[in-house]
Design goal:
- By secondary structure, the protein is an alpha/beta fold.
- 45% of the residues lie in helices and 12% in strands.
- The strands form four sheets. Strands 14-13-15-16-17-20-21-22 form an eight-stranded mixed β-sheet, sandwiched between helices.
- A hairpin with a 2-residue loop joins strand 21 and strand 22.
- Helix 5 crosses helix 11, helix 12 packs across helix 14 and helix 26 packs across helix 27.
- The protein is globular, with a radius of gyration of 32 Å.
- The mean pLDDT is 87.
């Protein structure tokens, strides 16, 4: 039960008075011609309990909730220190800049809440000025001196940002529009409309745009300003190198935030939404202290108010155990004082002159003590507080209602015509729905234009700048941030040395987010693939050769089961029109019909592909531009049958096998591996029977059949080998059923390569300690960051937390496959530049170079030797390594042997015959 505070009714009445906006003026309405809202400082104990009651009161206010955002100052400061306070890290900030970063993060958090639809679309605040300043501050994150081209780069990116925010220019610059206009309009009109008009518009907007004019005339950082917008913008992008005052940066951010609020609340006859704002926004800073620099932040708010001298519609509430700012001379008032604390403050406003001290804005009030239930006043205080807690704010004027707006809009439509009206409505709808359609990102986010929310509620698209597609996994987000930082480094290296060409690869995966934005247990393998790609990128950036290409990696998410891969491929095609450095795709995921559709679409846009884990036999025939670093299912089945024969020879099982597969008609991988396994085992003399199951997540058209638990239960007592040709999530259910039914005497289980996803996750592995199993892997399996490995030595540098977990995780090889896929492109590009230096690095040229990776030019990769044999139609490595891994509980998988080429190794004696290269045509 919530505690009852003594005289809490007086506090809630004071709160209601401070958040209610007068109809024609601003607070304090009791003092004509004087505007201002005090900083309400609640002093004392029981801060958390009282904060919770205040939050409920504001959220339950009638007729509409009061915009409110709590901020835990201790948690925010600890996060800043944790992320930016490591002196050994590249992103380290000294204490003064850490305080500025704290201010920036809190203001962005407040702006995000006030600009959302939480309180109604008609009360959203557009933070143009704060958005611009924050974008400039986030553009670069280094204390190094900018090069001579830095100003030009900032201006170009700023122009792209503005054009992307305008739907008209986005439409005009789209590839489909350019194609439609070519040949249908005069060449000069084509050039003027698509190139000169946007440039001219941006130059005009830089001079007339409100946020740009405000930035040049606001009072902070002004003394050293060269007088031009671009000069000021460059200073903001490199404030640490320019030795700017961090406190001035904080004040600039606060001023931008408050000015955006002022503009949104400024009443004008034509601004309906400003009149509908009948309650002031509330920022609740909990637990401010000297340690977390909350007191300094509040003081900066007060100083900006004094510097600007304009009313800002924000009620700032703080809680602390002592007087604001530690000022013992500041009188902390009681709620029961007569006259009341707010009346005394209004009198100070009435008599105040021009120079107001910082302490003028504080209204310190002591938090009342709690009333015990045994006290005879308990019920009276509880009921009085409950009544006062039902806050009421003024109703908006009737003429500002939605109905009145609709009537006005109808009249305007009649006057201006249906076409103009529909265009305005469409623009408004697009603006209101932008964040919902773009994974919650604002228009200012650099990734917002290339990601979108699919119908399955998954976030899909391409994110070059670090957006993690809504994933809540901190390790995924850290990986994406690392790739984004290396992308920026690649651009810088190319600008400094244009002889090193810039090339871009897209890494497409399926399971960065799950439907409903839920955490997905299979994200670990997707994260390891991205980390492998990032490690290859790091090594390429560190390659100091004058002609060596510099590499960018653009992560792409195609949704669960690759269901949105074709749409993402079409978006990649549009990116290629604007960015000629894009030369190929790595990754891809799960051999399903949607994956085949994705391959077809990537072929249509003209991009070569190097898949990491795909293995279905039919995939190479889908496209001549398709390559893979993993073996085919038929080779995997042959290795499985050979290993099973080896176990039979050692009398570990009978010569019979049960092939378990998915009945999902869209799962090409499972059906293909079933056919290959049945043939290979039969050819090896095994007695073969096959059992299909309905997967946990099946597609429409899946026939009826038994579930995975029934399969697991029926496996008990089977004296042959149970070979699983399905997905890891279904294998996990089978393990659970087997563990429950015959955990003390489990059957022999061998899984296909997809089960490696289970091997990558220590949490999922340790759930079945009594049921050991084996699976086929396309790498040597478990690795160590301390071993002699290009990949893992780099991972130790980029992702040390993964190496710290090496005792529990497997580092199962997904990173190695992605690492090799990227390095395959780098080897092809390097050989192309050596043999034909005059040929441009186009997707077509890179595609032809990939086929020449064979013989002495083969890649000795982390996952084995990759040799395409020299045949024009050989798109799969010959004798690619396949290992057998054994899992026993939470222990790291142990290799039982491997087949294929790894360095000078040739594999186990029981392996099937090596593959022959196809004849050249």
């Amino acid at each position: 039960m919530a505690p009852v505070f003594e005289h809490a009714d007086l506090l809630f009445r004071l709160l209601g008075k401070l958040v209610s906006r007068p109809k024609k003026t601003e607070l304090p309405g009791e003092v004509p011609h004087r505007d201002g809202i005090p900083i309400l400082s609640l002093v004392g104990d029981h801060q958390d309990d009282l904060a919770e009651q205040i939050e409920h009161a504001l959220n339950d206010a009638q007729p509409r909730a009061v915009p409110f955002q709590p901020v835990d100052m201790e948690m925010e400061w600890d996060r800043v220190v944790r992320e930016r306070g490591d002196e050994t890290a590249e992103n380290y900030l000294n204490p003064a800049w850490q305080r500025a970063e704290l201010c920036r993060r809190i203001l962005v958090e407040l702006a995000s809440k006030y600009s959302s639809d939480r309180y109604g679309s008609d009360r959203r605040v557009r933070f143009r000025r704060l958005g611009l300043v924050n974008w400039l501050l986030q553009l670069t994150d280094t204390a190094q001196e900018p090069d001579s081209q830095h100003g030009r780069i900032v201006l170009r990116r700023l122009r792209d940002r503005e054009l992307e925010r305008r739907r008209f220019f986005g439409f005009m610059r789209s590839p489909s529009t350019e194609v439609a206009l070519q040949g249908t309009v005069p060449w000069w009109a084509y050039i003027v409309g698509l190139y000169l008009v946007p440039i001219f518009w941006f130059r005009v907007w830089r001079g007339l745009g409100r946020e740009y004019r405000w930035l040049l005339h606001q009072p902070y950082m002004a003394p050293a300003d060269p007088g031009t917008f671009i000069g000021f913008a460059v200073r903001l992008t490199q404030p640490r190198w320019g030795r700017e005052d961090p406190q001035q940066i904080s004040k600039l951010l606060i001023d931008a935030f408050l000015e955006d609020l002022r503009v949104s609340y400024r009443r004008r006859p034509w601004r309906r939404r400003a009149h509908r704002r009948t309650a002031y926004g509330v920022a609740f800073l909990q637990g401010v202290s000297e340690r977390n620099h909350g007191q300094e932040l509040v003081r900066l708010f007060a100083e900006v108010r004094n510097d600007i001298g304009a009313f800002d519609p924000l009620l700032l509430i703080t809680t602390s155990p002592e007087a604001p700012g530690g000022d013992q001379t500041l009188s902390v008032r009681e709620l029961t004082d007569n006259p009341a604390p707010y009346d005394v403050w209004c009198e100070h406003v009435r008599s105040a002159g021009g120079g107001r001290p910082v302490q003028f804005w504080y209204l310190p009030v002591r938090i009342p003590g709690t009333v015990p239930e045994s006290d005879e006043r308990y019920e009276i205080q509880r009921d009085g507080a409950a009544i006062a807690r039902r806050l009421s704010v003024p109703n908006p004027p009737a003429w500002t209602s939605r109905a009145a707006a609709l009537v006005s809009a109808a009249v305007a439509l009649a006057v201006l015509g249906g076409t103009v009206g529909l265009g305005v409505a469409d623009h408004r709808g697009d603006r209101d729905n932008w964040q919902q359609d773009h994974c919650g990102l604002s228009r200012d986010d650099p990734d917002a234009a290339t990601v979108w929310t699919a119908k399955s509620d998954e976030c899909v698209g391409v994110a070059p700048h670090g957006f993690a597609f809504g994933s809540s996994d901190e390790r995924v987000r850290k990986t994406m941030d690392t790739i984004a930082a290396q992308n920026r480094e690649a651009e810088r290296i190319h600008q400094e040395n244009p002889a090193r060409p810039l090339v871009t690869l897209l890494h497409m995966t399926a399971l960065l987010t799950a439907p409903g934005r839920k955490q997905n247990g299979a994200q670990s393998y997707a994260r390891e693939q991205l980390q492998g790609a990032a490690s290859a990128q790091r090594r390429q950036l560190d390659n100091a050769g004058d002609r060596q290409p510099v590499l960018r990696i653009f992560p792409a998410s195609a949704g669960s089961g690759m269901r949105h891969g074709a749409d993402v491929a079409r978006r990649i095609g549009k990116l290629m029109a604007a960015d000629p450095s894009i030369v190929g795709v790595t990754g891809l995921d799960q051999s399903r019909k949607a994956t085949i559709t994705t391959i077809d679409q990537l072929t249509e846009v003209g991009l070569p592909m190097v898949a990491t884990t795909l293995s279905a036999d039919s995939l190479p025939s889908e496209s001549s531009m398709y390559y893979q670093v993993s073996p085919l299912n038929r080779r995997e089945a042959a290795v499985a049958a050979a290993y099973a024969g080896h176990l039979v020879d050692e009398d570990k099982l009978k010569k019979r096998v049960r092939v378990v597969y998915s009945l999902d008609p869209t799962d090409e991988y499972s059906e293909n591996l079933r056919q290959d396994a049945a043939k290979s085992f039969k050819d090896a003399g095994f007695e073969v029977d096959q059992e299909g199951y309905v997967p946990s997540s099946s597609s429409p058209g899946t026939p009826n059949g038994q579930g995975t638990r029934a399969i697991g239960e029926q496996a008990c007592g089977y004296d042959g080998l149970v070979f699983f040709a399905g997905r890891s999530e279904d294998f996990e259910t089978i393990l659970g059923a087997t563990n429950d039914t015959c955990g003390s005497n489990p059957p022999a289980l061998l899984g296909g390569d997809d089960v490696a996803r289970l091997g990558a996750d220590p949490e999922r592995r340790r759930a079945f300690p009594r049921v050991p199993f084996e699976f086929l892997d396309f790498t040597v399996g478990s690795a160590s960051c301390d071993g002699p490995s290009d990949l893992y030595s780099t991972m130790k540098e980029l992702f040390p937390e993964e190496c710290r977990r090496v005792k529990d995780t497997s580092l199962d090889g997904h990173a190695a496959l992605a690492f090799d896929a990227v390095n395959l492109y780098m080897k092809a590009i390097s050989r192309l530049r050596d043999t034909a230096p005059g040929i441009p690095l186009t997707p077509s040229a890179v595609w032809h170079a990939l086929s020449r990776i064979h013989g002495r030019a083969a890649l000795d990769g982390e996952s084995g030797v990759i040799d395409f044999g020299g045949g024009v139609d050989q798109q799969v490595p010959l004798d690619k390594l396949i290992s057998v891994q054994r899992v026993e509980g939470a222990q790291r998988p142990q290799q039982m042997g491997f087949c294929g080429r790894q360095g000078a190794g040739t594999g186990a004696k029981w392996c099937p015959p090596s593959e022959e290269a196809r004849s050249r045509s």
